[in-house]
């Protein structure tokens, strides 16, 4: 789920910025979607159902859904990271279905063969549509949101805009500028100010971050935790940017169903990738 900008020689970048449409040029170096053809996945159990939503501007987006089993009243909306798509995200999110929990895997415009081009405003509009779909699919369920990397920015904004039971991020930056090279920080067309967003979240917050995250440095998680004293900061010693959800799913559901109110913890699974 890398956030390294696609390399562009400085002179070429400067020339491009002198032309109209420079926001699009910069976005082409920020967002790194993968097509479905680039993805090879396998499920360990029952495959999810394909679902679609229509965003406010008319774009139709694909995602995946595991319904909660009878008697289980919980559902998590999973927002994937930057260099991915909903097919890869579903394979990663599958462990969250353990115990019969529901999982709705969202995706965004421009990702995984979805139409459109990614922007901050667009991704938030897409996520609004997925939140509405979650309520439609499981109207009686307790609703959680989870976001990895870029998806954490989306999840935090959804926790501000919608009534949820809690929000969790993994490897999420404090602001987009913190993950961008210095030459690009003043010209970013999208901000994703997660510091501002998390201050407005009133639901329980879990912030997971690996100490060896090579994409979004560990300090980003610390800054987010400092911005909202009610957030619980979960340190993953030795973990990188992507963590096998099989190592986290059980603990996540336990934490969601019995939320703490702030503080710092360490989770020490057998191995971290």
Describe this entry's structure for a reader.
The chain is α/β, with parallel strands linked by helices and 273 residues long. Helix content is 30%, strand content 19%. It has helices spanning 10-17, 22-30, 86-93, 120-137, 150-161, 176-179, 194-198, 218-227, 249-257, and strands at residues 49-54, 60-66, 74-79, 102-106, 142-148, 166-170, 205-210, 231-236, 263-266. A nine-stranded mixed sheet has the order 1-2-4-3-5-6-7-8-9, sandwiched between helices. The chain starts with 9 loop residues before the first helix and ends in a 7-residue tail after the last strand. The model is unreliable at 4-20 (pLDDT under 50).
Write down the Rg: 18 Å
Helix count, DSSP H or I runs of 4 or more residues: 9
Residue share in helix: 25-40%
Q: How many β strands by DSSP?
A: 9
Spatial separation of the terminal alpha carbons: 13 Å
Shape: globular
Q: Can I get a quick summary?
A:
The protein has nine helices and nine strands.
Furnish the topology, listing elements before pairings.
Blueprint: H1 10-17, H2 22-30, E1 49-54, E2 60-66, E3 74-79, H3 86-93, E4 102-106, H4 120-137, E5 142-148, H5 150-161, E6 166-170, H6 176-179, H7 194-198, E7 205-210, H8 218-227, E8 231-236, H9 249-257, E9 263-266
Parallel strand pairs: 3-4, 3-5, 5-6, 6-7, 7-8, 8-9
Antiparallel strand pairs: 1-2, 2-4
């Amino acid at each position: 789920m890398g956030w390294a900008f696609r390399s562009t020689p400085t002179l070429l970048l400067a020339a491009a910025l002198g032309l109209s449409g420079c926001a699009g040029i910069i976005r082409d170096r920020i967002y790194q979607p993968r097509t479905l053809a680039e993805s090879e996945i396998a499920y360990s159990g029952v495959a999810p159902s394909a679902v679609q939503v229509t965003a406010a501007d008319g774009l139709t987006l694909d995602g995946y859904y595991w319904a909660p089993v009878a008697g289980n009243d919980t559902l998590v909306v999973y927002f994937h990271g930057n260099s991915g798509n909903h097919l890869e995200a579903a394979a990663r999110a599958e462990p969250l279905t353990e115990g019969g929990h529901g999982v709705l895997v969202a995706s965004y415009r421009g990702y995984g063969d979805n139409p459109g081009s990614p922007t901050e405003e667009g991704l938030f509009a897409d996520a609004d549509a997925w939140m509405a779909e979650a309520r439609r699919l499981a109207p009686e369920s307790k609703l959680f949101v989870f976001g990895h990397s870029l998806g954490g920015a989306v999840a935090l904004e959804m926790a501000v805009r919608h009534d949820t039971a809690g929000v969790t991020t993994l490897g999420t930056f404090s602001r987009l500028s913190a993950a961008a090279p210095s030459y690009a920080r003043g010209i970013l067309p999208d901000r994703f100010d997660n510091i501002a967003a998390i201050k407005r979240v009133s639901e329980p917050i879990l912030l997971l971050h690996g100490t060896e995250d090579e994409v979004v440095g560990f300090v980003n998680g610390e800054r987010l935790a400092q911005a909202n004293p009610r957030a619980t900061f979960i340190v993953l010693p030795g973990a990188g940017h992507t963590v096998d959800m099989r190592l986290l799913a059980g603990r996540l559901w336990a934490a969601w169903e019995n939320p703490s109110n702030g503080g710092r913890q360490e989770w020490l699974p057998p191995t971290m990738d």
